[in-house]
Structures are given as structure tokens and as C-alpha cells.
Amino acid sequence: MILIKLGGSVITDKSVPLSFSKDVVYKMGEAIYGLSESEPVILVHGGGSFGHYYSVQYDMHTKPRRYSLDGFAIVRNSMVKLNSLILDVLAQCGLRTYCCPPSVLVYSNDAPYHDGSITNKYNAIPERVQELQTIAKSGMCPVLYGDAMWHKDKMSYILSGDVIMSMLSEMLHPRLAVFTMDVDGLYTSMESKKIIPKVDAQRLAEFNITDDTQKNDVTGGMVRKVRAATEISSNGVDVFFVNGKKPDRLTNILHNKYAGTYFSSD
Ligand code: IPE
Fold first, then answer.
1. Domain 2-263 has CATH 3.40.1160.10
2. Which terminus of the chain has a lower count of CB atoms within 10 Å, N or C?
3. pLDDT, tens digit (0-9, with 9 covering 90-100), for 152-184
């Protein structure tokens, strides 16, 4: 099984509110369809210029709080719209999508969120996650997404697709977890734009990873992705960061060839 995150920076144009990148999603969909005939795939997509746009406007974050209920409703609706656009395009590529809002998977009284460098214990409902696996193995392609989530006492929080990737990896142990993004992988620095081809836990400490690229991103942009990738690879799952706008590279990774940045599980 393979888990693939369709990053918000790939599926939308983050600089233009509510802009869906249909052609890019179509090309990734074709690459994924090619694979899904022989191996189960679960997809997770981000919020990009839909969910992120509104969560910034309403100052909503990953930590559960009493955010604006108007904002909560608007962010959630925007993700349903984006998800619907994505499902249509993936269906055109031949994928039998199985739409799964993340609230189906998590208990609402204990939010999974990253606080500093610590991820609190995941609270996914095990039977639901196992069911997703069964659905994927039966030839359908579950599609989840980052979302605004209900929490107890009128609180809400933003659940990032990256956290969903960590959660599913921990419970399902896929062959690969792939994060698509709008850059070629992890850079040594924003100035040099030199790609780091392979990362292991020790090596990661050598790099000074900053969040230069996505300042307005409530779920933490590249820093959070690196954190999720490190967490997933330390649980024994190989992780790749790859440019989703270059679908050949995605195809290469899905067929065991290197591209982008590889987080080794060794
Ligand atoms: C965020 O999901 C979802 C919302 C803001 C509602 P992600 O954090 O996974 O989104 P991207 O991939 O960074 O855009």
C-alpha cells in the first residue's frame, strides 16, 4: 500500500484565493491510476488556497480553541468544495474514489495536533482506519483531507493532512508515504536551492530547516512536513518529498526509482 499526500501548494495556487489547479491534479491522477491497478493507494489532500486561505482569515490554528464558529463553518465548507473538485478530476482519471472526511476517523474529544516538536498521541478510531485499508485493498481509492475539526466545549482546530499522513502511516505501515509539493524536495537552504537527496534522522539535525517558503500557512508549511516525514520514517516507513508538478517524478518513486528527497526508514 502507498500513501500519497497531494499538497495544497500543488493542487491550488496558494497566491490566488480559491484557485484549483485542475491540470496538475489530472496529471498526478493519471500517474496514481497507473499504480492503483497493481497496489492499493490512499490519498490525503491539503487545504491550499481553500482551507488555508480562510483559516488565516479567521485566525484558526492547529491547537484546539474557541475559534470563530463562522470561521469554522467557512473553512469546513471550503474543504468540501476543494474535495469535490479533486474527486471529479480523479474520477476522470479512472480512479474509483472513496471520499472520507477526516472526522470519520478521529474521536472529537482529543485532538491530534503538533505542539512545538511534539505530536500528541493519535486518537484515530482503529476500526475505521482498518476499514479504510480494506476499502483500498478492494480496488477503491480512499481520499482524505486536512480539515477544520470539532472539539469538545465549542472548540475547533485545524487538522493538517500531514498529521493524517503520520497517523495512517503509524497504523497501516504502508510501503511508501509520498508528499507531493511545488518544490523539488527539501533544500539545504532557500538561497542555494540545493536538494538534499537522502535524509536520515542524524543528518536532519545538521540542517537548519526554516519555514521561509510558506509564511502564511497555519499548519506550519515545510517544517511540519519535515516533522511528519521524520516521524513516519522513524516508524519504519520510507518517505519521499517530490515535486507534484512533475508527474514523471511521482511515477518514478512509485516504481522504486529515486526522485526528490528520500527519508530513509533505516
Ligand atoms: C490544512 O491541511 C487544511 C486546512 C487548512 C483546513 P494541510 O496543512 O495538509 O494543507 P496544505 O497541504 O499545507 O495546503
1. yes
2. C
3. 888 999 999 998 999 999 999 999 999 999 999
Å from CA of 51 to ligand 1 middle: 7
- Which SS3 state, helix, strand or coil, does residue 209 take? coil
Q: How many angstroms is it from 106 CA to the middle of ligand 1?
A: 17
Q: Rg of the chain's alpha carbons, rounded to an integer?
A: 17
Give the start-to-end residue ranges of the domains of the chain.
2-263
pLDDT in tens, 94-121: 999 999 999 999 876 665 555 544 445 5
What residues does ligand 1 touch, defined as CB less than 6 Å away? 7-8, 46-48, 51-52, 55, 75, 79, 146-148, 158, 160-162, 217, 219
C-alpha cell at 58: 479567521
CA of 224 to the centre of ligand 1 (A): 11
Beta strands 118-119 and 114-115, pairing class: antiparallel
